[in-house]
Amino acid sequence: MTRKAMLAPAAFAPPAWELPDASALQALVRGDADSGQQQRAMNWIINKACGTYDLDYRPDSREHAFVSGKRFVGLEIVKLLKVNTGALAGAKKSSPTKKEY
Prior knowledge:
Blueprint: H1 19-30, H2 35-49, H3 61-82, H4 85-94
Helix pairs in contact: 1-2, 2-3
């Protein structure tokens, strides 16, 4: 049996998109996206544009840095989607010594 080499997508290649992805993102920015469009837009941003769950290693250091930067943005978005904002809001109210910037 022959093995196929797995090739990482080109670091600088634009992510694949479909017309419904573009429509969902445009509706999101206008502020009139329905729930399905909101989910589609965020899914495209996190999974396609940022490559959040893709391996970021590339043999070329510049390509690795580029892909790592995109992935970092996706990880930050995912982190904020999982933050317990209610718990943090309560903690913020109970600790007035915390300095705000």
